[in-house]
Amino acid sequence: MENAGFELGTDGPSVILVGVDDSVTAARAAWYAAGLARRQRARVVAVYVETTGAVALAAPMDASVVAAEYEAGEEIAKQLAGRAEEIGRELGISVTFITARGDAFHEIARIAKETRADAIVVGASLKAGHRLLGSLAVRLVRAGKWPVTVVP
Q: Is residue 35 part of a domain?
């Protein structure tokens, strides 16, 4: 059989992308992805997407609100990156941490494509509005491009 090129998820994941933030479900997803990576000898790409919050969207473009939100996001990213590095060392796995800005679905999909991720792990959304609008996990599943594991 001739090699047809790269195919996602054929022999188990070699690159696992995990969406992280400061929520409890994202922390569980990160630990799940780390354990899976250790067992599969895969590498982890941890992605934190800074999104524009509802406060900044609802308020007039007050520079102080935008600056405060940006600083908070930067601090969260710094803490998450440090934790990802620590977990990688503890478990002996390769972890790459990426911060992006924008819509979580589009950024995770873009990074998954760029890193050739063949599995995505995300935490279940705890936001009530996602039942109506669709959560990140639902949008990733509907995209149908990667196996998606949703961790409660």
A: yes
